[in-house]
Amino acid sequence: MCNVYLKQILFTGCILLLSSIQLFSQNNLKLKYKKSDVYAGIEVGSKGVKMSLVEISRNAQQKNIEFNILKDTSVNTDFISFTQPTFQSTLTGLTGLYRAAMTDYNISSDKIYTVVSSGVKIQAEKVDKAVWIKNLIDSFKIKIKEPRRQVAIIDVLQEAKLSHLGIVPESRRFNTFLIDIGSGNTKGGYFPNNNTNDFKLFQLSWGTKSTANATEKRLEDDKTMYNFNKQLYRVLAGQANDEIIYSVNLSGAYNMSDNIAFSGGIAWSVATLISPELIDNPVIPVTYEDVEGFYDKLYKNYTSFSDAEIVKTLADPTLNKVGISKEVQRVNKVFDQQSLMAGTGLLLKIMRQFEGIYEKKQFYLVKNGQVGWISAYVDQSINKPDQTVSK
Amino acid sequence: MMRESRSSLLLLVSLLLFLMSFVILCTWGYNTYYRSKEDKKAASFFIKDTAAIGKATRDIANATRDSLQKIYAETISDLDKRFDSSLNYADTLKGSLKVKLAEFYTLKTEISDILKNRNNDSDLGLAKEKIAELQKKVNELLGRNNEVEQENKRLYAMLRQLSGEKGAESTVRPVVFDNKPVTDKANLPENLFQAFDLHLSALMVIDDREMETYQAMQTDKFVGSFVVKNNNAINNVAEVVIIIMQPDGKVLQKSTWESGTFESQEGKKIYSCKMRFDYTRGEPKKLLFSINGEKFIKGNYSMQVYYNGALIGKIYKTLT
């Protein structure tokens, strides 16, 4: 009899403990909205697997998506090499992040979205390795024991459109041209007809890394910064220039947009280094002259962008100097001087196409662009599950 | 014996589980309590009905009277500080300024009389209205003050440009701008926009109706306006940036898409919003802006208008 009671106490204790742990892990995330749900978006990208935990406001009255990025983490796996080791590490990363979302952050399976990005799809098709994506998805389903789970493969148009919906607020939706400068390419677009069905896609085969690589190839024996600057000018004035002018003209964005917003790693870096005072702002308005001045300083006085030097220039005592210092360190870890110059050079070249004498466009640098499309994807999946690629 | 030891083990494990649950729940409770404490604090402000001022007891009435006296005193001292210097140099507009000052002093005396009479509570409403009127007058006078300062600054710059003599400084009276003499560093000839008639109002929104308020907890947004004028404008399009500085020293930002940084003559600054406008030479142009906020704090706010990195206008606003 006593044993029965003890077993009951033990069982109750276990339940209580599990509930407490669940409650604790949910509250560990710093939520912003009063009514919200937490979703996880896991994306297999060209460089690796990325997980974003997004808090989406549950306010039925608001038309625009309001989201708050709770966590953004990634595992570098280089899936697009399409080798057995990179396949295995991508699978491990994908499974690991999925389990982390479920166990560490207590997000139920129906609130976890798994997708493969357009970059992977394009590269796989280019080298005839599309079957590797299928194999990865099948292996993932077996590993997590969810045979019914669907992993969507997003195409470039869908990704660009979702990024726009996720990043640009509704008040600026139909007059903003969003351009995402990636490492290997640049993509973006705008809504030309005042509705979100029609989207004008913009693409360039130049990105931060490809521009830097093309410049490095021209350096030969002279590895000085002076030569890098000279060769970068030639790269951007040559083939890249022709493609940029052609693509911008073709897009018709000059006449249709008042705002030009840039996202991608280089936009985040430039925004952080140009306006460290606005470390908490996800978007930074800039002028062509601001970015031009920044490029000059990058070339002539790169040391002024170290975290210590930047913090020294901050006179406002209300600023979070520790946070600013950490973020600047993060930028300097991701991009070195040459990559920053290459990316900024490309950014300036695109901005130049919108810098008219009489009509000035407003430029913006978006810092959290990488989670924009996954947030919009999650939002669409919740509100219009039949119109979005299933989970 | 064996059974007994098994039972003890089970009991021990159960106790351990309960203890762990208790610790985790306590930690969670602690976090939740302190996180919600601040929200509750903010919410409690709004629960209090400010309209109950008329029904309040004598103590509350006295407290209100004291706070009104405080606003009144702050308004007067605020104005005094900024007028002392400019009055000496406001030659051209001295006449109209005198009329306005006379009105201001009459109002000031009226309010003093009401606030001195501690026996009559019904006058508090009247005092409140009069203080609002006084603050309006202060803003008008400050706008006028700015106009005088800008005009002086412009004339001084023109004089310097025309004379082209280094010794000119010794013959010209130093111009006072924002209580500080203009330094040699100011590139005045390039910065010929003037800002005057600066206004900054705090508004509360009830049922889609906007009403002016002076209380921080009632404020939903700031609406500002000013007039810009440039007799030497070259371009058709001009841009000014506005800074609303909060009492805690932080800049009130309109939105992340509208607030940024700019280089001013005093160094890099964060701006609340930027205004781009078409401009015709010599024409006064009125510009309006509004900035919403989630929570406004009590204290002195300042509105600063910059053109080409130089401060061209500044006023203060107090929320109680």
List keywords for this structure.
heterodimer; A: 391 residues; alpha/beta; 6-stranded mixed β-sheet; 5-stranded mixed β-sheet; 15 helices; 11 strands; globular; B: 320 residues; alpha+beta; 4-stranded antiparallel β-sheet; 5 helices; 12 strands; elongated
Structure, described:
The complex is a heterodimer of chains A (391) and B (320). Helices cover 50% and strands 17% of the residues of chain A. Chain A has 15 helices and eleven strands. Chain A has helices spanning 2-27, 84-104, 118-126, 130-144, 156-167, 208-219, 225-237, 239-251, 253-256, 265-274, 288-300, 307-313, 321-334, 337-352, 372-383, and strands spanning 36-44, 48-57, 67-76, 112-116, 152-153, 176-181, 186-190, 200-204, 259-263, 283-286, 362-366. The longest helix of chain A has 26 residues, at 2-27. Chain A starts with a helix and ends in an 8-residue tail after the last helix. Helix content of chain B is 46%, strand content 26%. Chain B has helices spanning 2-47, 58-89, 94-116, 123-163, 168-171; strands spanning 176-177, 180-181, 194-206, 209-213, 221-229, 237-245, 260-264, 267-271, 273-278, 285-292, 299-307, 310-319. In chain B, helix 2 packs antiparallel against helix 3 (94-116), helix 2 packs parallel to helix 4 (123-163) and helix 3 (94-116) packs antiparallel against helix 4. The longest helix of chain B has 46 residues, at 2-47. The radius of gyration of chain B is 28 Å and the shape is elongated. Chain A binds chain B through residues 2-3, 6-7, 9-10, 13-14, 16-17, 19-21, 23-24, 27, 169, 172, 274-275, 277-278, 281-286, 313, 315-318, 360, 364, and chain B through 3, 6-7, 10-11, 13-14, 16-18, 20-21, 24-25, 27-28, 31-32, 237, 248-250, 253, 256-261, 267-268, 270, 274, 276.
